[in-house]
Queue: 3 jobs
Job 1
Amino acid sequence: MPLMIVRNDITKMEVDAIVNAANPTLLGGGGVDGCIHRAAGPALLAECRTLGGCMTGDAKLTGGYNLPCTYVIHTVGPVWQGGGCGEEEALTSCYTRALTLAQEKGCETVAFPLISAGVYGYPKDQALTVATKAIGRFLESYDMTVYLVIFDRAAFAAAGSRFPEIQQYIDDRYVAAHASTARRDMAREMPEILGFPPRAPIMRPDVATEECAAPFSTPKRTPKAKSSSAGRATPDTGKSLEERLKHLDESFSQMLLRLIDAKGMTDAQCYKKANIHRKLFSKIRSDPYYRASKPTVLAFAVALELTLEETRELLMRAGFALSPASKFDLIVEYFITRGDYDIFAINEALFAFDQSLLGGC
C-alpha cells in the first residue's frame, strides 16, 4: 500500500518492477512497449524471444537489464471493440496477473502504464477506472506500493466533461466564495456602490477641510484607575506551561485511534482503506502529536466514512479546515456529502481536476 497516480516516464521509475503494455509476440513495438525495449537494451528482446509470446490478459516476467528496475512484467491488454467483447475483464486480468507475479518475486514497488489506452484504443478515462479498481482490490490483501504512471495528462478529456456533477458542485460553491470575497473587497474600497455608508474621512494634520476644520491632535489617554489586587489571583496565575498543556483537547492522532475503535475496524483495515502506507500509520499511532498533512487527514476521514461535520472536526484536530475557496476541498466534500467513500474514485476525480490525491504516503 498505497496506490499513487503520477506523471512520469515509466522507464525512469526506480522501482522493483515496471509493467510493459506489450503485444502478444512480446517482441517489442510502439508506444510504451517500444520505449521500454529501447531503454532496456537488446538483452530484453533476447529473453522475450524465449517466452513464446503471451495471451491477452496474461503476464510474463523478465529481467530489467539497463532499466533502473529489477524486473519487467509484460502483459497484453485487450483491443477496444466497443466494450461489449470482454474488454474490462481482460484488462482487469492484466493488472491482477502482473501484480501476482510481482508479489511472488517479493516486489515492494511496482509501476504500471495505463494498459490498452494507447494504440489499442481503450478510452482513457475508462481504462483509468479499471486500473484503480483492480489495483485497489489487490492491495486489500497485500502490502505493496503501486504507481500508475500517466505520461501525458493532456491526453485525458477535460475534467468538466468527465465529471459534470462535480464541476457544477465546484462552480456553485467556488464561484460563490470568490464572489463573496470580491464583494467584501469592494465594500472596503467603494462602500457607496454597494449601499454601505461611506467611511469617515481620515484626519491628517496637513489636510484640512471645512467639514474637518478642527486642528489635528493626539487624543489624551485617560489614566487607568488603580485596582487593588490584594487577595485576588489573576486567572491561570501560577500555572506552568506543562500544566496548561495538560488541558488541551485530544490530538488528531488520539481522535483517529478512538474513531477506529468506535467503528470496529482494525488498524490494517483503516490504513488500507485510506490508501496510506502502514509505516506512516505506525508513526501516527506511536506519536500522539503527529502532524499529518491535509490529504492524509482526509484520507482517514474517507476510510472511516465520517460525516461532513465529523470530517471537519478531525481536520480541526490537525489544524486544518474545509474551504469553499479550495477545489481540492470541494471535490472531497462532494463525495462525502453523497456518502461515496471510494478513495480511488475520489482520487480519479482529483487527478482529473489536477489536484493533490488522498493518501499515497
Job 2
Amino acid sequence: MKTIAVIGTRGFPGIQGGVEAHSYHLYTHMQDVRLRIYRRRAYLTEQSAQSFPNIEYVDLPSTRIKGFEAVWHTFLSVMHILFHRPDVVHIHNIGPGMFAPLLRLAGLPVVLTYHSPNYEHSKWNAPARWLLRQCEKLSLRFSNRVIFVNKYQMEKCGALDKSVFIPNGIDPVTRSDSTTFLEKHGIHAGGYLLAVGRLTPEKGFEYLIEAANRLPQVTQVVIAGASDHDSTYRDLLERLDTNKKVIFTGFTTGEDLRQLYSHARALVLPSVNEGFPMVLLEAMAYGLPILCSDIPGTRQVDLPEEDYFTVKDIDSLCTAITRLLDTPDEPQHYDLKEYDWNTIAATTRQQFCKN
C-alpha cells in the first residue's frame, strides 16, 4: 500500500475553501492508499478532529498572513517529508509547487493538481503575480504527473504529455425538508438567490449585490462564506448592500449548507476567476436553476446558454436574473455521471503509479 503525502491544502474536514473541499471528497473516496495530510494548524476547527482509517494528519504551525502562510507551511511540510519519506508527494496548486524541484532532487515522485492560475487573482500585487508565474513554470516542469481540473487550463499550458484532465466531483445528495437554519437567519425559503464561496474579490459577489439593488423583484440574497485574512472585502460588500437585501451566513457546511441549497430559488455564481467551482456541481446535484459568469471555469459543465451572463457586467446579470425569476420555479435535471467521486478517486490513484 503506497503512502501519499499531501501538501498545498489547508486541510480538512471543516476548513473553508475549494481545494479543501476537493481534497476532502477525493481522499475519503481513496481507500487503497495510506494518506498523510499536512494541515495548517491555524485553520483547524472542531470538525477537523474527524478521523478516517487510512488518513494520518500532520498539523504544523502556520500563519494567516496573505502571501506568506502557504510558503511557510509548505516549507515546513517539505522538511517533514524529507525525513519521513512517502512513496509519492501530491501537491495542490502552483504556489506550493515551487518546492517540486527540491522534492525531485530528493528522489521523490511528485504529482501536481493544478486547480487555478492564482496569479490572475486581483488580491496579488505585481511581484506576487510574477512569483506565482515562476512557481507555475517550476510546477509544470518538475512534476512527474500534472492533473488539471480545468480542461481549458490544460490546453492553455500546452497539454503536456504528462498531463491529464480529471474534473472535480459530486456525491449524491438529498434535499432537506428542514428550515431551522434559514429561520435562524431570517431567510425566506424559496425566495432567495444563493451564492457560496470565500469572501474574496475573485468571487465577484459585488456584482450580484449591485444587481440585487437594481431589481425590486430580488428580495433576499444569501452569501454563504467567510473572509480569508481580513474583513476588507466583506466590509465593501456590506457597504454596497444599500437596500439591506443580503444575509451573510459565514462559512457554512453540513446540514446548514444542505438547507440553503434545498430551499434556494437559484444559485448565482458571479466569479471573475475559477478553476472548476465545486459549488456549481453542488447546485446541480440539488437541481437548482443556475446563473454563472461566462468564464472558462464555469464552461467545464454543460449548461444552457441562457444560464451564462457576461463577467463583471451588472446589466447582463440583471437581465439573466429577471429572465430566471420570470420562469416557473421547477427542479432542474442535470447529467452528473461524469463527476462521480469514486471514478475520480480511482483515476487520480492511477496517477500515483505512473512515475
Job 3
Amino acid sequence: MMLRNYILFALTICFINIGLVQAQNDSDSVATSASEIKESSVALPLNEAEAAYINNNFAESIRLYEAQVSEHRSINQESAQIYYNLGNAYFRDNQIAKAIVNYERALLLEPGDSDIRHNLRFAKTRIEDKIDSADNLFINKWIRSIQNLYSGNTWAIIGIVLFILLTVAIGLYMISAQIILRKVSFYSGIVLLSLVIITNVFAFNQKTKITNRSTAIIMSASVSIYTSPDAHSQELFRLHEGAKVKIKREEGRWIEIVIANGSVGWLQKMYVETI
C-alpha cells in the first residue's frame, strides 16, 4: 500500500512537472534566452543598433533597440539579450533609471547571467537611494541565490531529468531481490523525490516572476511617498530615480508600494516603470 501511494505521488509530480515545462515553453514565446541570441548573432552581420553603439551614437542605438523590443513584444516575445544591450546603451547615455529597468528585465528572463548581474550592480552604484533589505536571514538569501542560478525553463528540465532517475530508483526497488540494492534505491528515491519537488517549486517561482510583473523602478528624479492615495496626505519619505519598489495594489492613478526595508506608502504610478 505504501509503495503504491509512493508511485502515485511520484506520477502526480511528473504530471505537474510536464505541465510546468509546457507552460514554460509557452513562455518561451515570452522569453528568448540570451545564449540563443548570442549564438544567432555570431552568424549575422553587425546590426544597425550594435553599430550605432560601437560608434558612440547611443541615442540612435537606443532608438533601434527600442524598435527591436517593440517588434518582439508585438509577437508576444521578449529577449534578455536585447534588454541587456538596451540597458548598456541607456547607461552610456547617462539614463541610469532606464538602464536599470532594462537590466532588471533581462535578469528576469536570464537570472543566472553574470554579465547582467554585474552591470545591474554597477548601475545601482550610480543612484541615490541605497536601501537595505529587511530580510537578513542567511537561509532565505541562500535559497534565493540557488533559485536564481537558472531560469524557470531550466529548472523544469532539471526536474524532468531527476524524475526519470526517480522512476529508475522505483523500478530497481520493485524488481531487485537484493536487500542492499532495495535499500539504496529506496533512500535514493526519497532524495530524488525531494529534489524533484524543490526544482518544481523553483521553476514555478521563476515563471511566476515573469508572468506577474509586480516590481517597478522610480523614473522621476525625486518623488514623495504618502500615507494614502492623496497628494494632500502626510508625506512619509522620498524616493529617487532608479530606486526599486514592489507594487502591492493599484487604486486609480495611485499605487501602493513596499521597498526593500519594509516601508510602505503610496505614489502616483506615472512616476514608475514596471519591470
